[in-house]
């Protein structure tokens, strides 16, 4: 009986073992067998890795190239800004020099306007009447007031004053000078098209004015600023040819040397 029990126990244990074995076999993960040889699998993995690395290197090189391009653009813009700053400063200095010379005694050489402002006496008849009654003409006073604003560097107000003067006296004794100073103000503020118009007014509408040489020189500078080098050189050469003894001719000659 004991032997039977023992055999039974062993049978039970064996059954349990068989059941466990079957279960283990049944539920075991079925291995995936690739039809691709091992060597080819490794080669494919290496190729994929190399392609990925090459792609990253290409992206890195592209980014580096973009950075270099952007740096070049920044340097170019910085240079352009610095050049414009210097040119703007030169224009202000030039205008201040002309105004100072006009106020201090050297205006005949620099601007064509004598130190005693004889351009305020261009009309003999009106000048005679104003001397007789001791009162300046309306046009003369308007010009003096406008020009004083230029000397005080109140350029916006001066622009309004000169414009009003020209509206009231478009062919007056001081119209050429008013156009010229409007051109100077526009040129200083880089309103090149407006400056060009004003200087052309002096040249074309008032050919006998003493401001013509300066207006031609300034027109040459405007054209040069606009990138019209050939036209600029033509204007500057015209000054040196037609007005060789003027200060405008000397300035034109100096500028021609720099742009040739």
Description of the structure:
The protein has 260 residues and is an all-alpha fold. It has a domain at 87-110 and 135-259: Serine Threonine Protein Phosphatase 5, Tetratricopeptide repeat, CATH 1.25.40.10. It is built from eleven helices and no strands. It has helices at 2-27, 38-104, 107-110, 124-133, 138-151, 155-168, 175-188, 192-205, 212-225, 229-242, 247-259. Helix 8 (192-205) packs antiparallel against helix 9 (212-225) and helix 9 (212-225) runs parallel beside helix 11 (247-259). It is elongated and about 100 Å long.
Beta strand % = under 5%
The termini sit apart by 130 Å
Low-confidence stretches: 2-30, 103-118, 121-135
- At the fourth level of CATH, the homologous superfamily of the domain at 87-110 and 135-259 is Tetratricopeptide repeat domain
Helix proportion of residues, in percent?
Answer: over 70%
Order of helices and strands: HHHHHHHHHHH
CATH fold-level assignment of the domain at 87-110 and 135-259: Serine Threonine Protein Phosphatase 5, Tetratricopeptide repeat
Number of strands: 0
Morphology: elongated
The CATH class assignment of the domain at 87-110 and 135-259 is Mainly Alpha
* Biggest sheet overview: none
How many H/I helical runs? 11
Assembly of the depicted chains? single chain
Which structural class best describes the helix and strand composition? Answer: mainly alpha
CATH-defined architecture of the domain at 87-110 and 135-259: Alpha Horseshoe
Radius of gyration: 45 Å
The pLDDT mean sits at 73
